[in-house]
Amino acid sequence: MSNEPVVLLHGFYHGAWAWTEVIAELAGRGRTAVAVDMAAHGLHATSPASAARRPFDPVAYATEPSPVSGVGLDAAADLLVAQLDSVGGGKPVCVVAHSMGGAVLSRAAERRPELVAHMVYLAAYMPASNTPCLDYPSLPEGRDNRFMQLLVGDPATIGALRIDHRSPDPEAQAAIRAAFYGDVEPSQAAAATALLSCDAPLAMVAESTTLTEQGWGSIPRTYVVCTEDRTIPAGLQRLFVAQADTAFPTNPTTVVELPTAHSAFLSAPARVADIIADRAAATRQR
After folding, report:
1. Which candidate, 138, 129, 112, 102, places its Cα nearest to that of 223?
2. pLDDT score of 4
3. β-sheet bridge partners, residue 151
4. Where are the domains of the chain?
5. What secondary structure letter does DSSP report for 49?
6. Contact (Cβ atoms closer than 8 angstroms) between residue 196 and residue 93
7. How far apart are CA 79 and CA 55, in angstroms?
8. What is the DSSP letter of 56?
9. Which of 100, 205, 202, 204 has the alpha carbon at shortest distance from 158?
10. What is the C-alpha separation between 132 and 139, in angstroms, rounded?
11. Would you say domain 6-284 falls under CATH 3.40.50.1820?
C-alpha cells in the first residue's frame, strides 16, 4: 500500500458509504483511501421530526424548519480540515470531492492549502471566487438539470434543500433515479436512495469562498466531467473549468471525461479508481 492516503468526500444527501466500491477498487491498485462524512450528512445528519412521523404529513414535511439549517461552508470546511489533518497526519493528501463536496473542498483548500496535495473534482461544484453554488443552476449551462424539481417546500423558509427520497410514489422515485443514478443498476440505485439523508443546508449553496493564488489557486487540480450528468450538466462542469483557468491561468485544470451520469462512483467505480490512482501518482511525482 502507498503511504499517501486519498480522502474521498461525497456530495449532498450522501455519506461516506457512497465510496465503498471505489475504495475497494483503489485497494486493488495499492492505494489507501479514506471516505469521510460531510457536515450535516452521513453520521452527522439530522432529519426533521416530520420525516419519521406516521401517518406521514406532507404539509408538515414541506414546512418544518431544518435542524441543519445553520450549517454553512465554514462549519463544513472546519470538519473537512480536521479530517484531512487526521488522515494525513499534517501532511498533504490527494482529495476527491463529488457534487456539492466540491464547494466544501474549495473552502477547506483555500484555508489550509498545505493539507491538500491535489484536488480532484468528480462531477462536482467548483465555483468561481465569490460565487455561490446557488447561482449556477439558473445559468444556461445548468438549466436542464433534473435536481431542482426534486425539492420539497421553500428552501428559504425551511433553511434546506429538502427531498422526499422515501416517497412511495413511483414517479418521485423515478425522478430521483434520473437526477442522481441515471446509469446505475436499478437495485443498487434503490439501495442508495434508501441511504440518502433528506436535508442539505441552504447555507452551503448560498455562501461563497474568496479564492486566492496562494491558497486554492496554488494547488494542482483535476476535473472529471461526467458527460451524461443530469444533476450538474456537463456544460456547467466545463464552465467551472473555464472560470478556474481564467482566474488562475498559470495553474490550469487537468480535465478527464467519463461517459457516465452523476454518480460515477456507483456506475463506474473501476474507472473512477483508475483516474484517482493516476492523479495521486502524478502528485507524488511532482
Report:
1. 102
2. 84
3. 163
4. 6-284
5. G
6. no
7. 36
8. -
9. 202
10. 13
11. yes
